[in-house]
Amino acid sequence: MALSGIQIYKMLPKTNCKECGFPTCLAFAMKLAAKQVELSACPHVSEESKAQLAESSAPPVRLVTLKSNGYQAAAGNEVVLFRHEKKFFHMPGLFIRVKDDLTSEQIKAKLAPAEAYEVDYVGLELTLDGFAVESVTGDAAAFATAVQAVNAVSHRPLILMSSDPDVIAAGLAAADCEIPLICAADGDNWEAMAGLAKEHKAALVVNGRTLDELADLTEKIKATGVEDLVLNPIGDNLSQRLALSTQIRRLALKKNFRALGYPLFVAPMDGEDIAYQSILAAQGIAKYGGFVVIDYFAPELAYPLLVLRQNIYTDPQKPIQVQPGLYEINDPTPESPVLVTTNFSITYFSVANEVDGSGLPAWLLVTEAEGMSVLTAWAAGKFDAERIAKDVKRFNVADKVANKRIVLPGHTAVLSGELEEELPGWEIKVGPREAVDIPAFMKQVLA
Amino acid sequence: MPVQIPKDKWPGQVRVATIGATEADGGTRTSVITVGGEKALPFMHFEAEMPYRPVIALEIKDRKPDDWSPLLLETWGEAMDAPGAWAKAAEAAGADMLQLSLSLTGVDGEPNTPDKAVTAVQSVLNSSGLPLAVFGPGQKEADNELLVPVAEATKGERIALGICEDKNYRTIVATAMANDHLVTARAPMDVNLSKQLNILITDMGLPLERIIMDPTTGALGYGIEYGYSVMERLRLAALQGDTMTQLPMIVTPGFEAWKAKESKVGTGVPAAWGDWLERAINWETLTAVALLESGADILVLRHPESVRRVRMAIEELMEAEELRLATGN
Predict the structure, then answer these.
(1) Exposed, middle or buried: residue A296 (CB in 10 Å: 0-12, 13-18, 19+)?
(2) Where do the domains of chain B lie, and which CATH numbers do they carry?
(3) Which of A144, A155, B96, B135 could make an S-S bridge to B55, C-beta 3.0–4.6 Å?
């Protein structure tokens, strides 16, 4: 269990030497309890206390990081069951799986577009995280060849999948990846798999059909010195998968149950079609997955999954905002119109992309609305005529334009009267309700 | 190693609501839907039975819409020209329920009228035996002008009338009370505003069993995380015993997802967005699945393929055979 500040204080030297940067040992203990400082800041703590404190301060869900040629995929270190309680920290890695019964050329052809895939979402460039190679031939040489084929197109983290330690050993020898993920250890092969994980400093997936079985295996494997484990609770359907994942996260967080304090592995079974896999992956992203595998690469599926992951892992306390100001789109002139919106990033990017796509020049005035969308900001009184007029002045908009036309978002048409009073000499226009209709509006009404 | 399975025991329970009435109950529906009754978080069957499965509604309109994606126009084709035909097609596509949205204007651009609205609703009721929700165009005057005669003409059908919002709920609630219907109550992604609206509506005398709350959601990429978390918080509050949050939830992922550029538009978009139709269906389906996991009781969709996929998710999530959580349990 996590210790309180007082409990931690009892284990500190209590000399108030201040070398940790805090005035007293008690103050330092409080910071430790809040996980805001590291114990290593105290130079005088005893080895015994160190061991005790390390055990109690270990995160309830272990952070497991796959590393490869400068890429990494990390999962774990989560502290809540629901994102609104704080936030979800480590976005699950998304991996595309290939099987070793394909030829090297087929593997390269399948994976090259996935490797190169990059999509823009609200100014972020989103990519996939790596690839999984599964042995279906059972042949070690075929597996090694498949791993090499993957490495010929990608240097991202790898997941090596087989229940046969000899096959995994061949894959590990062939793989160009500092910390790959071995998948998987089970009741029969765990000793050999743990040995391979230790030897190659790899992380290891543990398969189990019940929580008992999983906890049993992780304890045995941990005793051999392998700690970077990932749990694969095998469920026959979405319901079982959800129940098992939820219970694992609950046990780790609420009971501090170490044997299940590891990130989760989510992969489809054989023969599940792309529609089913899309739903399974979405559930994995929303409900506690750490490494999520799908068999298909298609941009029309990769894009929504990457966006879902981004959305679920957004910090609920901090809406993503853009800087308020006057933005120039398509080289505006003093004759170009001024469009107004708020500084919520999704709103900004929706509007800016449409204006940009219209090919027509415009000024985009992004007002300070505390990161809220137009309707929310309007309802909360953060987007009204007074505030818009204030930002028109603050960003010297009148100096940039000769033709004083300002366009309100359609949802806030009601503000036009007041804005006319706030901005004498300006022509107030009402734009469309949805960003997607902006190009047509610009062509028909503003041109 | 025997693992002690923590089971949450909640003091509260979501209320049960039924939309639609069969002949025996004073209506003409051949089927009804019942939702709610949850005593645990979504699909945690090992803690408490989930008595009613989440329901899929298809949105139809009283006339061919001007602003829907070409993909939807293509899918529904000529059925969109007549609400009765559209209702039949939606039933054939596997919906449990229909959600009819009344338009502000007719195809000729003239304002919609009470007579036309009533005719459209009756044509839907005559063409399909599914239970029905009817939403106004979303403007106060028009909503009240159209929904009151609709409610009167369909007395006893137990239609869900919407959308009640804090700035306009009195007229809709009054007519629902007078004509044995339900209402949907929408608040803008805020737990307290949802509660407040439910209180205002029950203060008028409509029983909680006849309110379905709509917490509002955003599409994937357009604020889904806000709706998602508000739904989780509302459901947690309900289970903790907060009466005014103990209502089934309806959400409109179809409306939201098909408004997004990703679904609506097929040209002039980045190549990284991939195939248009499949992307649009993924957009709607993944929005719906995320909301299902956060507590939705009724999901209103627009595309038949999304209905098929979300149905597949619901079927699996409702499988409640004894779980292999632990050998000892």
Answers:
(1) middle
(2) 16-317 (3.20.20.20)
(3) B96
